[in-house]
Write a structure and sequence with these properties.
The protein starts with 5 loop residues before the first helix and ends with a strand. Helix content is about 10%, strand content about 40%. It has one domain. By secondary structure, it is mostly beta strands.
């Protein structure tokens, strides 16, 4: 991924940790939640994996009656649990209806939330990023928080480097571990469609990456017990007690397995368009390509110094200057 491609995609990840306080109760840490979470009900039996979809012709796309049902695409959705195999062509096949909130679910630091960040490169404004998590859906038979982040360059940046990114993550509502993620990146000439699905019971993953010409590669492997993707890992960090000098380590799969190490460095006051806040300064050390920043660059992130851990400001070093993302609006 090029240096410029990090400008908006890193802001999309930063927005994942933005917070709009939902309740007066402070968010418990994950170990506390794990100790107090209700017992999980038995999972339903596995159903057969969904069948691959059949392509639709251009004529059928404009007029569904032009072709017989046997030729039309049937986007089968597996609302019960299925075996995660290469027969799954997209995470959308595993998404089912919305699920009402339950006391059996582990709480996010904030739910629901929508965050808007303004992104600049040096003194130049280059676009904005948003992140929304406002519903719980059925995902492969399990209730999951659906996290959606989007990044879009402004008209100035569009003239030389248009960015249109969409990142999604499905976070198990009972365990706050990732069930899978998807990213669709359109950054200048850079193109990537990629998704990864995690089978926690089997301890395995399946990943699929597709290029601009439709060619794809499938990869399989093993995962740690408490796997996170880049987007979901932000919620894990937000739920921790962040003391100066501490380190938080997250088991991340992208689809390589690697530890995301977040160092807690100091407390500071920061100014943002939303006001002045007490903050905790943390520095994630990225060892693989991610939404925060490319491998080897320095990222500093200021979170609000309260139970919500709202992201207030981010600065990342690039080869030519630095990128800044600041919270503009919390809805």
């Amino acid at each position: 991924m090029s240096r410029r491609s990090a400008l908006l995609s890193l802001a999309a990840a930063l927005s994942a940790c933005a917070v709009h306080r939902m309740a007066i109760d402070p968010a418990p840490t994950l170990p506390d939640l794990a100790a107090t979470a209700p017992a999980v009900s038995p999972e339903p039996a596995l159903a057969p994996a969904p069948s691959p979809a059949t392509p639709v012709s251009a004529a059928a796309a404009s007029n569904p009656a032009a072709e017989s049902p046997s030729v039309q695409t049937v986007k089968r959705r597996a609302w019960g649990r299925v075996s995660i195999t290469t027969a799954v062509l997209s995470p959308s096949q595993l998404m089912g209806p919305d699920v009402p909130y339950s006391s059996a679910f582990m709480r996010l630091p904030v739910f629901p939330e929508k965050i808007v960040l303004q992104v600049s490169w040096g003194l130049l404004s280059v676009g904005e990023a948003t992140l929304t998590v406002d519903k719980i859906v059925t995902f492969n038979g399990r209730p999951a928080y659906h996290i959606v982040s989007e990044a879009r360059s402004n008209s100035f940046c569009d003239s030389f480097y248009p960015v249109r990114d969409l990142n999604e993550s499905w976070l198990d509502a009972r365990t706050l571990t990732s069930l899978g993620y998807s990213k669709k990146l359109r950054e200048g000439r850079f193109f990537r469609d990629e998704w990864v699905l995690y089978d926690r019971d089997a301890g395995t993953f399946i990943a699929r990456r597709t290029d601009r010409d439709g060619n794809f590669a499938v990869r399989t492997g093993t995962i740690p017990a408490s796997v996170q993707d880049i987007l979901s890992s932000v919620y894990f960090v937000r739920a921790q007690e962040l003391k100066n000098g501490d380190q938080v380590v997250v088991d991340v799969n992208t689809p390589d397995n690697w530890p995301l190490v977040v160092k807690v460095t100091s407390r500071e006051q920061v100014e943002t368009p939303a006001g002045r806040f007490s903050s905790v300064l943390v520095e994630p050390a990225m060892r693989r390509e991610g939404l925060f920043v490319q491998k080897g660059k320095r990222l500093r992130l200021w979170l609000s110094d309260d139970a919500a851990r709202r992201p207030l400001l981010m600065k990342v070093e690039v080869f030519f200057g630095h990128v800044t993302a600041v919270v503009r609006e919390m809805i």
